[in-house]
């Protein structure tokens, strides 16, 4: 096939595979396909690569606006970081953490469990034990296939916790880790099965509630540098920015996906480029699938499924100070408070930076309330909340920034998509099913590494393996022969 031709004023090229989206999943798919000798075009709507990983310098401070942390079990990501010649550094965690009780009292502690009172701590341990057993029994690969899937998927995590415990403080504290910390939705808006999947994807619920495990390390230079390095390897003739895809068409108007013949030409139209290929990998979150017109239309099941998947909402707050003042107080910078605006706070100081950086998170309904306020009032309230953990010095950062992926045109939420009540057991088995020449890849569909860059990389590699015929199409898991885990 010729590589380039001109149709009127529109540039058109021919490639073996088109990848929609230049986040970690899309770039890993392209990288894997290119290594196998396939020609690839990656079309990205944004003016940058990295998707929901994004680093910026704001008022002289380097900030990781998007996803950033690496845990020890994320071996796909760790192997890639090493392969690309990048390095990681540990999150600062020396000193005491802070727990803010519902009555507003402040408590410092060491270890992994909140000082919430002997009875409540014991009850939290018991609930974690139950969730650990469920995560081990149900697993991350096919939670919808478990005999208890419907039972657990038709009750909210909020209701499930309270059905298993009458200790309200224990239920609230456990809920922080999944509702505010991961899914960024109220615990009444997602199911117990969705919470179990979140835990199973991290290896256990115990891992999920251990911030020293789940928030272990960061990449020097920022997580976006992983995508930037992959894109640089692929080259400018492969990765096209500012190129939102509008339409994917294959065959004639009378064709249906059920009759798809492998190798049938697929035409992908974007604002700047038309690509004719044999296969397409759509590597964007499910809430953006509707931004693309598919001809013929996607099957009914796909349309229904996508209406039951949505991203959460979180404000990631960055506050930079002349020094990490909390360390002089013997504090790690870590804080938790179920009733605080900022339910989580961490030391997020950059590698070899003499200044101190804190990151805090305001999730779901609390974020809704704050976004209804003027920016100055929102800043005041958030910094006041952080000061409850670490002292009045927190009120006066030299740099302040709020990450708001909910307002991003090509994201529209954070951190990743999850199902509404009943959606996971109903549709989960179909979320990766190819539609004609189209495969799907993103962290939102991952088993191991669900919602994380690690899961995105696994999904990208898996979609590429499907295109190459190395694994069955629509495989639920992410284990691949020869792939790092």
UniProtKB/TrEMBL annotation:
Cofactor(s) needed for function: FAD
GO molecular function: oxidoreductase activity
Chain sites annotated for binding substrate: 361
Residues noted as binding FAD in the record, renumbered to the chain: 44-45, 245
Top-level taxon: Bacteria
InterPro entries per the UniProt record, alphabetical: Amino_oxidase, FAD/NAD-bd_sf, Flavin_amine_oxidase, Flavin_MAO
Keywords: Oxidoreductase
Annotated Amine oxidase domain residues: 25-468
Coiled-coil ranges (or none): none
Family statement drawn from the similarity comment of this UniProt entry: Belongs to the flavin monoamine oxidase family.
Protein name from the UniProt record: Putrescine oxidase
Organism annotation: Kocuria flava
